[in-house]
Design a protein that fits this description.
246 residues; two-stranded antiparallel ribbon; 9 helices; 10 strands; globular; FTHF_cligase
Length: 246
């Protein structure tokens, strides 16, 4: 199956089974799902989370419980702005009890501070939003725009991430499309610019993955049309840092 077909199946099946959560419809998004808080609690049990002091978490709705948990646990949180239009925002030291409010898409820029690329601290753990993931290879696919992949490669290029920095995703069990008991039972196709995951947490299980592919560590500039590149502020900043050449 192609990536688009797998995405469509996940969106349809989460909706059909009543496992899709607000905001709806989940089609075209990193889908929120019933049990996202339980998946976050499983992440909290992982040693790579406990040891991490600086965590990057995507801005997607199903990751909201994780973003709040990161602040509640006294860690530093980096959030990319949606569609990478304005770079990254750092949050830390939020007043106790306001972590969920502070990490919502409505408020995170008010509670946090936008940072230049060179200001970003080395990141210990990445939590990525996902539409579908393979537990046998670690391959994940997002909603198709490639922002998570670009963020990883960008931060690797700057030395803020390493190729072996742990990557976790939190999903519904239906999104683990090659699990033995899964109705779809397919492995995901992979492209060199795709990031893979090391751990999958769902409401019911935690899986340590043996990644089958290397992480992307360079921006594939050939995939970016000039109009789209102009809308991606961090990539423009990277080009300026490199003297105008990708």
């Amino acid at each position: 199956m192609e990536k688009g077909q797998i995405r469509q199946w996940v969106w349809d099946e989460l909706t059909r089974r009543g496992q899709a959560a607000f905001p709806k419809p989940v089609h075209g998004r990193i889908p929120n799902f019933v049990g996202s808080a339980a998946a976050a609690a499983r992440l909290r049990e992982l040693e790579v989370y406990r040891q991490a002091r600086v965590v990057k978490v995507g801005p997607d709705s199903p990751l909201h419980p994780i973003r709040a948990m990161v602040l509640r646990d006294g860690k530093k949180l980096y959030m990319p702005t949606p569609r990478l239009t304005a770079g990254f925002v750092v949050l830390e030291g939020v007043e106790p009890g306001r972590e969920r409010e502070a990490t919502s898409l409505t408020n995170f820029r008010r509670f946090g501070r936008e940072v230049r690329l060179e200001e970003i601290d080395p990141i210990d753990l990445v939590v990525a939003g996902t539409v579908a993931v393979s537990q046998s290879t670690g391959v994940r696919i997002g909603k198709g725009a490639g922002y998570g992949d670009m963020e990883f490669a960008l931060l690797c290029r700057l030395g803020k991430l390493r190729p072996d920095t742990p990557v976790v995703t939190a999903v519904h069990d239906l999104q683990v499309v090659d699990a033995p008991d899964h109705p779809l039972g397919v492995e995901l196709p992979w492209d060199p610019h795709d990031i893979s995951v090391d751990y999958i947490v769902t409401p019911t299980r935690t899986t340590a993955v043996r990644r089958a592919h290397p992480q992307p560590t360079e921006i594939d500039w050939s995939l970016l049309e000039p109009k789209r590149l102009r809308a991606l502020q961090p990539l423009l900043e990277l080009r300026r840092m490199q003297g105008g050449n990708p």
